[in-house]
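Weekly modeling sync, notes
Attendees: S.R. (lead), two postdocs, one rotation student

Agenda item 3: backlog of single-chain predictions. S.R. asked that every request posted to the team notebook include the full sequence so nobody has to chase files. The rotation student volunteered to paste the first one in as an example of the format we agreed on. Action items at the bottom.

Example entry:
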Amino acid sequence: ALLLLVLAPMGVEGHAQLNWPPPRTGGSLADGGHCPNGECFWFTQPTSIPGPPTLPHALRSFNLGVRTGEPGDWSATMPWRAPGSAPVSGSGCGISGGNDVMLPNGGGSADGVRQGADGLLLPRTTPTIWPRGSVQEAGFGILANHGGGYSYRLCRLNGSRVDEACFQRTPLRFNGHESEIRFDNRTWIYDKTMKVPAFPIKRTTTQHGTWPVGSEWARIPIPSCNMCNQAECGTPVFPNTSAKFRSPLLLQLGYHQDWAYGGLEWFEQQVCAQSCSGINVTACPPGMLQFQEPANGLSGFFPGYGTEQQGFAYSVVDKLEVPAHLPSGDYLLSWRWDAEQSHQIWQSCADVRIVDGVDSVISGVEPLHL
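Predicted structure, as returned to the notebook:
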């Protein structure tokens, strides 16, 4: 573990974002998981589950060789271990930088955005039309893969309070048993872009041990790497947001000074954990996967780290069932990703309009401008 601390840097960007429907944070299917404009900086950290783990073992995304309660179960308090139960900051759309204090693990805000700002307060977008009782698409991109799983929820914009409790009242169901891998428009062959065909992969979901009770959550389908045992990094600790520390590694990671907040113990744990996950490994080496790839080459933690094309080159797109009983009107769609490798939850919100009649469909695949 000590060798990895010296040799392997850690991510200094955000980690994931909603790409479709068009979110208030600016994500796009055309950008996949690359996060060029800070759209993946909206999340909560630190946070943990309020009770014991409830997730079925088969839905784990890290450390599957150790069961709940056994020695070495280092992810036991992470949000994915009891999906939906860990508290979030803000209204359910994430906050800029994840905390009011900038932390050196990707915990900064996008350019021009106040640290800790609520994503709900971003300008509204033109709503995507969703007829009641229809099946609609939603998708997200990953910059850094912290495992865990995700859910989509709705909150009606009818003058009532928009918060996590409102989103939890209307969790959405997935349609079918497959997700689709849909590539960005940044695949270059010399001076030309190439349109890579989309393809389906199996979706793994659960309604057991989730909150709200019976809500449906899907595991992140892309396995991270298992380069070393994260238990060697020590029992996970929360950052101390009032503890200033110094480390020469901060300058190597691109920070403007050699000090930051969070505490040295926490910072070194972050570096160790991301090293074990295979930061900057394009795809995990054979035998070093957290679980089986859904298709050849679909694995990794933070491909392209430190380059202009960092992040995964695709979005994960799902079909969702729009409940037939919903009143017509304007809603916010919240995508929530509960991580298992870290005490973090990512969220993004998009404006949708629920209407009557299937003839009103104006949604679908966002065009890729090639």
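Discussion: group reviewed the output briefly. Residues 1-14, 359-370 have pLDDT under 50 and may be disordered.
Action items: rotation student to repeat for the remaining queue; S.R. to check formatting next week.
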